[in-house]
C-alpha cells in the first residue's frame, strides 16, 4: 500500500501541531510540515519541516514542487476575527489570495486540497447549520472564508472544505490562546471575567479536528463537511463547565450580553453544526466537551 504524503500549512498553529502530533503517533500518512519561520513543534524526528510563507507564491511553488504531496491540509490563516476586521487587506491576502495560490498548484499537479473554514460563514440566526445552508457572514473574517470557499467550489481542484467551531486545546509555544485555556488561566489567578450568555457554539477539541482532516485525506473526501464537538452550549455555560471541571471559583464569572462587549467584529448568535454527514461519510466520532477537558487536563499534567 502506498502511504499518502500530506503537506500541512500553518503547522506551528494549534491545529497544525495537533496534526503533527497525531501523524507522528499513528503513522497513517507521511508528513511534510510547513509554516512561516522556524518550526515550533518540539520534536524534529519522523517528519520533514520546510519553511513556507503562504503569502509568498514563489516559495509555496518551490516547496510543493520539491515535496510533491498527494494532499495539502491548509490550516494557515488569519484566525483572529477582530484583527481581520481591522486589517481587511491583510485578511484578504492570507484567507483568500493564498488559497488561490494553492488551488492553482493543486489543479496543475492533481493534489487534493483540504481547506479549513468556519461557522462564521453563517449569520447565527438559525443554528445549528447543515453543510448546504445559505451563508451570510457578519464579519470580514467570515466573508474572507466565504470568498475562499467560492474559489474552491469554482475550481477544478479536488477539494474538501472542513468548517469548524471554537477550537480548543493545548500545544507547545502557542501563537494564541483559546477559550478553555483563557477561562482556566483567569479563574485560577482569581481574575474576574465577563462572558457572553447570548452566543451559542459547539466547541471543538483540536484533536477531533485533526482526526477529521486525516479522515478527509484517507477517504479522498470531496465537498463541504461540518466538523465540531457534539455538545451545544452558550459561551457562559462553556466557561462554567471549565470552572466546574477544575473546581474553580464561579462567583467571579459575570454573564454579559454581546452588545455590551463592543468588539470590533460582529459575532453570530447561534451557530452549531448538524454533524450527520461527517459522521456517516467520514466516520467522524467527536469527544464530548467533558471528555475534551479531561484530555486537555491530562496533557497539561504531562507536557505543559
Ligand atoms: N481556532 C478556531 O477557533 C477556529 C474556528 C473556526 C475555524 N478555524 C480555522 O481553522 C484553521 C486552523 O486554526 P488554528 O486554530 O490552528 O489557528 P492558529 O493557531 O492561529 O494557527 C494558524 C497558523 O497559521 C500560521 N500562519 C499565519 N500566517 C502565515 C503565513 N503567511 N504563512 C504560513 N503560516 C502562517 C500562524 O503562524 P504563527 O504561529 O507564526 O502566527 C499559525 O501558526 C484556520 O484556517 C482557522 O481559520 C479556527
TrEMBL record:
Chain segments annotated as transmembrane: none
UniProt pathway: Carbohydrate biosynthesis; dTDP-L-rhamnose biosynthesis
Ranges for domain RmlD-like substrate binding: 5-296
Gene3D superfamilies per record: NAD(P)-binding Rossmann-like Domain (3.40.50.720)
EC class name: oxidoreductase
Keywords: NADP, Oxidoreductase
EC number(s) reported in the record: 1.1.1.133
Annotated protein name in UniProt: dTDP-4-dehydrorhamnose reductase
Amino acid at each position: 500500500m502506498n502511504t499518502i504524503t500530506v503537506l500541512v500549512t500553518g503547522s506551528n498553529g494549534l491545529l497544525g501541531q495537533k496534526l503533527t502530533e497525531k501523524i507522528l503517533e499513528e503513522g497513517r500518512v507521511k508528513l511534510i510540515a510547513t509554516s512561516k519561520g522556524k518550526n515550533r513543534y518540539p520534536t524534529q524526528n519522523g517528519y520533514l519541516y520546510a519553511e513556507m510563507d503562504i503569502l509568498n507564491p514563489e516559495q509555496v511553488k518551490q516547496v510543493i514542487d520539491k515535496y510533491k504531496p498527494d494532499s495539502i491540509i491548509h490550516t494557515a490563516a488569519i484566525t483572529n476575527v477582530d484583527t481581520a476586521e481591522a486589517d481587511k487587506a491583510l485578511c484578504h491576502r492570507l484567507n483568500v489570495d493564498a488559497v488561490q495560490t494553492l488551488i492553482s498548484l493543486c489543479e496543475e499537479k492533481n493534489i487534493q486540497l483540504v481547506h479549513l473554514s468556519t461557522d462564521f460563514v453563517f449569520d447565527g440566526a438559525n443554528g445549528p447549520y447543515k453543510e448546504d445552508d445559505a451563508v451570510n457572514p457578519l464579519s470580514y473574517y467570515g466573508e474572507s472564508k466565504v470568498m475562499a470557499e467560492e474559489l474552491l467550489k469554482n475550481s477544478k481542484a479536488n477539494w474538501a472544505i472542513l468548517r469548524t467551531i471554537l477550537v480548543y486545546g493545548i500545544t507547545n509555544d502557542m501563537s494564541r490562546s483559546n477559550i478553555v485555556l483563557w477561562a482556566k488561566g483567569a479563574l485560577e489567578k482569581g481574575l474576574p471575567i465577563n462572558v457572553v450568555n447570548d452566543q451559542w457554539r459547539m466547541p471543538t477539541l483540536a484533536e477531533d479536528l485533526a482526526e477529521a482532516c486525516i479522515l478527509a485525506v484517507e477517504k479522498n473526501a470531496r465537498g463541504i463537511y461540518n466538523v465540531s464537538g457534539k455538545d451545544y452550549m452558550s459561551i457562559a455555560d462553556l466557561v462554567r463547565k471549565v470552572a466546574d471541571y477544575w473546581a474553580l471559583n464561579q462567583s467571579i464569572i459575570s454573564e454579559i450580553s454581546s452588545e455590551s462587549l463592543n468588539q470590533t467584529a460582529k459575532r453570530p448568535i447561534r451557530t452549531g453544526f448538524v454533524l450527520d454527514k461527517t459522521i456517516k461519510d467520514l466516520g467522524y466520532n467527536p469527544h464530548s466537551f467533558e471528555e475534551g477537558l479531561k484530555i486537555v487536563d491530562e496533557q497539561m499534567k504531562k507536557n505543559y
